[in-house]
Amino acid sequence: MNDGDVEVFLALVERHRIYMYNLALQLTGNEQDAKDVVQESLLNAFRHFHRFEGRADLRTWLHRILVNCALDHRRSLRRRPDAHHPQPLADVADTAASNSPDPERLVASADWRRLVSAAMEAMSPLERVTFALRHFEGKSIAEIAQAVGIGHNAVKQHIFRAVRKLRLALDAACTSTPKRTGWSSR
Q1: Residue 104 and residue 58 in contact, taking contact as beta carbons nearer than 8 Å
Q2: Model pTM?
């Protein structure tokens, strides 16, 4: 790779780094893991930049590399559960979208984020990735299949299982804990 290629690569990375970090954060669930996954992804992209043919969009190519690195990272954590204690998504997620939410709303919002985070931790790596890409990134089934490298039906199955696990966890939490708010469950 010559100096011109390095400059082009660095400019492209600069354009996509925030997107890559946000996606990695959604896939890994904590800031340090997201940084590690982005770093590994960029290193892989740099090593293989000469293979990028330009038939696909660079963002799609980087996306595929990042998803694969995130999957590898999650698999390695499952093999070595004592090697890392992930920070829950609830701790890194923003508070409710309101400009000035009341304390009760903040508590309820934090509780839901913790429940969703715990449910996502119980998902397999592919369930978590396909769910995040579909529901957080708004990707189509075809885009997810391409990014993850599995078939369309497999993507649908992983998303289905992820949604089922999330529903079961939220249903169990809703029936086992008293309501903190005055909201009714109609």
Answers
A1: no
A2: 0.52
